Amino acid sequence: MLKQLYITDGKITEIGEGEAPVWVYTAPDEAERRFLIEQLKIDEHTLSSALDPDELSRLEFEPEHVAMIFKRPKHYTAQDNFLFKVVSTGVFLFKERLIIVR
Q1: What 3-state DSSP class applies to 58?
Q2: Within a 10 A sphere around the Cβ of 43, how many other Cβ atoms?
Q3: Whole-prediction pTM value?
């Protein structure tokens, strides 16, 4: 699922369609993954790493963007016996756009 965001007057605003500078993909489907790989030239392995909870955190410098894979805490509840879990997130910084994949 894609959310397109603007930052205006210090506030994040979601827009329906358009060319927003911040794109947030949550559990991207196959078509969204293909778009990121083929159109934006995000490396397929790096994109998969952004969704792999066992992936190591890292920073990569590509010709068109900078890619950062990092761990973030996963929401947990009492049903999880308060077991601390993490998930991976990918941040891809282009000249005109920031893409977050989680």
Answers
A1: strand
A2: 15
A3: 0.88
pLDDT at 44: 98
User: What tokens appear for 31 in the block?
Assistant: 């078509």
The number of C-alpha atoms within 13 Å of 19 and in the hemisphere containing its C-beta is 2
Residue 55 C-beta-side C-alpha neighbours within 13 Å: 22
Structural domain boundaries enclosing 42: 2-101
What's the number of domains the chain is made of?
Answer: 1
Q: Quote the pLDDT of residue 80.
A: 67
The CATH number that applies at residue 22 is: 3.30.460.20
- Give 4-26 as a 3 state SS string: EEEEECCEEEEECCCCCCEEEEC
Q: CB count, 10 Å around CB of 90?
A: 23
**End-to-end alpha-carbon separation of the chain, Å?**
10
